Amino acid sequence: MNIFIKDIQKTYGNLKVLNRINIEFKDKDFSTLLGPSGCGKTTLLRIIAGLETPDAGEIYFGDKCVFSKEKKINVASNKRKLGMVFQDFALWPHMTVFENIAFPLKAKGKKENIKEKVFSALKTVRLENLYARYPSELSGGQQQRVAFARAIIDNPEVILFDEPLSALDANLRDEMRFELTTLVKDIGITVIYVTHDQIEAMSMSNKVIVMNKGNILQSDSPEVIYKNPINTFVAQFVGKSNVLKDGIIRPENISLTKLENSTEYEGSVESVSYMGSFYELSVKISSLGLWKIYSNERKAAGEKLKLYIRNSDIHILGGIANV
Ligand SMILES: Nc1ncnc2c1ncn2[C@@H]1O[C@H](COP(=O)(O)OP(=O)(O)OP(=O)(O)O)[C@@H](O)[C@H]1O
Ligand SMILES: [Mg+2]
Question: Where residue 318 falls among pLDDT bands split at 50, 70, 90?
Fold first, then answer.
């Protein structure tokens, strides 16, 4: 199901949190709202969910208008056919895994085949054996899967995630990233995912929507966002970048050995961080400030380096954003 957001605005007191947001989430796409803390991601997600009322604009789920300020339409959240997974999982501690997952069905009075439906959802998330446990008896990753099973139990057409992995430790987060992507692909569902983590956004989504201060800056595939960022904010938010006069260059495109058709720069090493498979260097280029570059060998602070950049690797900023 496609979701259209038209001219959505939201203000809290004097604070403009969303500034005329226009965006389309395509059927079965994994779309991610990416932006810094406070930029309005959760507010937009809650507005789509019907948990927050915008000041102006319209929202369509497919052909159906679920919100219109002008037409005075506001379809209740539980009638919007969506599942939600939040950062803290929000599982009920006094209910077992089975009861937690069954809850949305019971709340809507859908009493038929509850057992079959719950076990089918448990099978999807591979937790059939843990149905009688309480949330406190589960690991973080298992709790996350229960939250996911609960979100899909009533066959939603869209699933909304708000930073669902941020409470997990780094290793588990990597694992769950992969698992969540596989699960939603298997079910074949439209996903709107919120995060401030660029790796999460780039690795999971087929569409990334970069927000800042209540505005959408750019909306495109992860590859286009990375290779053709519209401005320095987007460039720096989706990866490391070095600013040149006419654009930006990613660290991985700066070479310490001479390249054909390249421009040479001189710099001196300010600091060195060992990253496991490579070294990240901060190199001072006299007229251009500090650059981040990658090296296979350790370099010493103060060491003089020659750097080579191909013009074709410079990303010119200010292309047309495909919002
Ligand atoms: N109910 C509310 N009342 C007043 N201000 C609010 C309310 N909810 C959110 N805000 C403000 O709106 C702005 C956007 O908040 P929002 O929660 O949408 O940000 P976010 O992008 O999700 O940030 P984070 O990454 O920290 O979760 C913030 O400045 C926040 O303080
Ligand atoms: Mg938030």
Answer: low
